[in-house]
Amino acid sequence: MPQTVYQLSKQTIQTMKQYYHKSLTTTPQGAIFRAKTPNAVITAYNSGKVLFQGKAPEIEAERWGNEGSSNTVEKKSKPQSIYAPSPSLFSSSHIGSDEAGTGDYFGPITVACAYVKEHDIPILKELGVKDSKNLTDDTIVRLSKEIVKLKIPYSLLILHNKKYNALQKKGWSQGKMKTMLHHSAINKLLQKIEDNAYEGILVDQFCEPAVYKKHLATERHTLNDKTYFMTKAESYSIAVATGSIIARASFVKEMDKISEQLGVSIKKGASRHVDQQIAKIISEHGEGKLNEVAKVHFANTQKARKYM
Length: 308
Fold this sequence. Notes:
Blueprint (H helix, E strand, L loop, with lengths): L2 E5 L2 H10 L11 E6 L4 E5 L3 E5 L3 H5 L7 E5 L20 E7 L8 E8 L4 H7 L9 H13 L4 E6 L1 H9 L4 H20 L7 E4 L4 H10 L8 E4 L7 H25 L9 H14 L4 H4 L6 H4 L5
Parallel strand pairs: 6-9, 9-10
Antiparallel strand pairs: 1-4, 1-5, 2-3, 3-4, 6-7, 7-8
Helix pairs in contact: 4-8
């Protein structure tokens, strides 16, 4: 298993413990803390040694690389690690971008990015802004209205199903669609905030940065300066969490519109219950209707046939 070992100060280790507070697990004997992230398991010991182990330990280790020296590296750092944000970004003025609806058969993809100033971070936290995956749809819709009242600058884009299906038939992957949506939303927001200072742009990571840049290049675009990527970014960045809530609230509203249009409460996700609902919609409205309300290339379209 790849691993990296750093020797860090007690002060840095305490900063790390706070940074990883949502990922903490049982602390082994002789350790100050242990945390588990999608990239690695991080164990900090009383001796000052910090061990990073897992599928991509260098991504987590690089966050703290300037604080100490590495004395054991068994796997070379990937170039993409330069796109990992510094922990200081989360307490600074920055832009965060996230999407909703990508795994749902019905409904569009929505992407929203928000610019959160440093002094607005505690206000948003007090309001209850956090990872939208841990919030109910009703709470998300309510919070999105509160965010608008606070006049937090944001940009929202909706890729409706007709356009989604047309792009998919054209050869665009969902990853490319999301890349271009994030890029466009970020550029629109940068125009809105004009000369307001920001420390960086954080995108909730859905692909490797090199792939993201490749998608941009195919449409003759380049990555914005100071852009970073991080999985589960909404758990760390209040700006990404804000964008996530705005995107999710928009998705919920669009799903409500589809439900009203079809006269039935449309199910989210892509389960067998969705398959059954697809069969009913085809029976009542014809298969062509799916092009207007669903991501028809999902396997659910074929699975639904056994219920017809």
